[in-house]
Amino acid sequence: MSDFKSSLIFLGIGSSFACSGLFYHLYKEKKKELIKLKEIPVFRPDQHLATLLKSSPHGRLQYVAVEGLVEADEQPLSSQFVPRCYGVLQKIKVVEHAEYWNSLSKTWSSRPTNRKETNNSVPFSLICPGSYVSDFHVRVQDPLEGSGYFLERVYHRVRRAEEGLVNVVLQGISGERAVAMEESEEMLRVGSNLTVFGEVVLERGHGKVQAPKDGREYLLVPTDYKSFIERHERSADMWKMLTALTGMIGASVLAGVIYDTVGKDDRSK
Predict the structure, then answer these.
(1) How far apart are the first and last CA of the chain?
(2) Are 116 and 93 contacting, i.e. CB atoms less than 8 angstroms apart?
(3) Other beta carbons less than 10 A from residue 38's beta carbon
(4) Cβ contacts of 65 within 8 Å, gap of 6 or more
(5) pLDDT digits 0-9 by tens, 131-178
(6) What CA–CA distance (Å, rounded) separates 14 from 105?
(7) What is the C-alpha separation between 170 and 40, in angstroms, rounded?
(8) 12-52: per-residue pLDDT in tens?
(9) In this structure, what are the phi and psi dihedrals at residue 268, rounded to the nearest 5 degrees?
(10) Are 115 and 95 spatial neighbours (Cβ–Cβ below 8 Å)?
(11) pTM above 0.85, yes or no
């Protein structure tokens, strides 16, 4: 029993130090990522950016971040479920859920039987607060090719299926019965903050941000640049704290084991 207890203690010590090493590695990787992010020039879609583009070679900035407010270049999309909700990107998903009879377990099991997804979009640009799309703006090229999750869920509902004659007949024929329909809508809303990391070029007197030609990430973030950096800093701080915590736990347990071992040796003399 004593050997088993000792094995558990040393396993716990080793696990603590292993976790501490893993967390430290994640902390260092996050710090490297933060350093690279902070090296990226950040601009707003204003005259300063316009002047810089005009003076740069070929009217091009290779990899920068542009933060601004979303503004539709034409008539924005209207939400199908939420009144006075407008956007430039829209994803509507309808999923039908059904139950089928499992003759082996003698139970009803649930599964999605039909999925339907509709995607709509209109061209849009980034503008400064208080500006209009007729002022200098930066158009976002092919946003769906970018990485990052930048759509906001504006509607979600699960409707239970009603027990009707059709459902009863289908249940008897196929062994399935409809139980619910799930509807959801996600949008990139007009007026929301968006930061785009990519290549910016001058086109017809305005800017256009697009996927970089050097292979770097074309990233869209549904917040301002400062909040984006603060989120990464909090993540780095979390890994740093976990590194210290697990290291201290492992060191404390190890110190206790050493103290007990030395104490036993002293008492046996």
Answers:
(1) 25
(2) yes
(3) 11
(4) 40, 41, 42, 43, 195, 196, 197, 225
(5) 776 788 999 999 999 998 899 999 999 888 665 444 544 444 455 667
(6) 44
(7) 59
(8) 778 888 898 999 999 999 999 999 999 999 999 999 999 99
(9) -80, -10
(10) yes
(11) no
